[in-house]
Amino acid sequence: MNPLAELRYFFTALGYFTRVPVPRWVGYEPHYLNAAARYFPFVGVLIGASSALVYLAALRVFPAGVAVLLSMAASLLVTGAFHEDGLADCVDAFGGAYTRDDVLRIMHDSRIGAFGAIALVIALALKWQTLAALPPLRAASLMIAAHAASRACAISYLATLDYVRAEGKAKPVAQRLSGPALLCAVLFGLPWLLWPNGPGAPDWRFAGLTFAVLGALRFAMGRYFVRRIGGYTGDCLGFAQQIFELTIYLVGLAWISS
């Protein structure tokens, strides 16, 4: 393993998924992006940690609902609403088209339709209300876990499904993910679910339930993508990340509410 190459791949992942400036020496080659896929969940850790810090700092001044909104605004600013765009595009396409070609055409359209707008409002509102209802330390911990684990689950489709576009923004990423790269992504993304209440003893029961829910959801969404378009697009990965992230928050709230 070449440490300099791995650092380049990490910075490539950071530059692709966020608006954080990366060093010029990193450069860009298409193959960097596929090699960088293993670091996508680690970028999620950084995004989740920044959101959690904004949330905890805002709690010193504002009520929980306002603090959560500020943390969400921070993550949207850092990522440029990258995955939220995929959510809107997918819901527009899957909700408004019948044939595979029409789904791909609508998904490629940069304009947002009624289905996509409604999905964004519902997703953001659910995140806001769910996180605001959680105890502060649990909310902050789940922000980190959800951003990391959702990205690990989303890119796992690179190992099992086919990319269906001849070209596209995600094309350099969309080579088959190797077993070692997938394992690396899983190790970066999933262990955070063991600590939904912050540092301390791991909560194996919560983690086991969440893993089971995410696994079932991953299988169901993968089957749906294959049935509708024969595989996945970059927008499908963004859609999946948003659904996985929201699911983790909902499971986290249901766990303490039951």
Automatic annotation (TrEMBL):
Pfam families cross-referenced by the UniProt entry: CobS
What InterPro entries does the database record attribute to this sequence?
CobS
Any one Gene Ontology molecular-function term assigned to this protein's record: adenosylcobinamide-GDP ribazoletransferase activity
Primary localization class, coarse: membrane
* Pathway where this protein functions: Cofactor biosynthesis; adenosylcobalamin biosynthesis; adenosylcobalamin from cob(II)yrinate a,c-diamide: step 7/7
Can you tell me which family this protein belongs to?
A: Belongs to the CobS family.
Q: Please explain the role this protein plays, according to its UniProt record.
A: Joins adenosylcobinamide-GDP and alpha-ribazole to generate adenosylcobalamin (Ado-cobalamin). Also synthesizes adenosylcobalamin 5'-phosphate from adenosylcobinamide-GDP and alpha-ribazole 5'-phosphate.
Q: What is this protein called?
A: Adenosylcobinamide-GDP ribazoletransferase
- Organism field: Paraburkholderia ultramafica
Q: Which gene encodes it?
A: cobS
